[in-house]
Design a protein that fits this description.
Elements (H helix, E strand, L loop, with lengths): L1 H21 L4 H25 L18 H29 L12 H33 L1
Helix pairs in contact: 1-2, 3-4
């Protein structure tokens, strides 16, 4: 995944530059670039899983035995997914609600700058938080 993500990063930077600045799509170009990069990453990882000998043991024929532990999987997966969704939605809601605050015209002449600054701060906090979270997840995976 690290190699795939790094490869997509090196692909995404020039793609984003072309779609945002050269094509004149601006916000739409940025959204299109991230969407293309994410889908190419999915395709690259799917091809790796299908063609790699390291993943040979994960490829099994489709049968009822394949779905044997799916109940236990969903018992843990659904609450985890809800928890992550609520966390992300709370950040997004906080950003949207910050636009309702009174905007002192003497400090910032453009109210959108306050919302943008809050969004950048929250994204930075999330990024800094993800480093120990990812390390913890990796350690839990190795230990278990």
């Amino acid at each position: 995944m690290l190699i795939s993500s790094c490869a997509m990063l090196w692909f995404h930077i020039p793609l984003c530059w072309v779609l945002v600045f050269k094509s004149g799509l601006y916000n739409l170009g940025a959204a299109l670039a991230i969407s293309i990069s994410n889908w190419l990453n999915v395709i690259f990882l799917a091809l790796y899983i299908m063609c790699s000998s390291a993943c040979a043991k994960t490829r099994v024929p489709i049968s009822m035995e394949l779905f044997q532990g799916i109940g236990e999987f969903f018992r843990f997966a659904v609450p985890s997914a809800v928890m992550i969704c609520l966390e992300w939605w709370s950040f997004e809601l906080l950003i949207l609600l910050s636009d309702l605050l009174p905007h002192p015209q003497l400090v910032l002449p453009h109210p959108q700058l306050e919302t943008s600054a809050l969004s950048i701060c929250l994204r930075t906090i999330i990024t800094v938080y993800m480093i120990p979270y990812g390390l913890g997840a990796a350690v839990r995976l190795i230990i278990s």
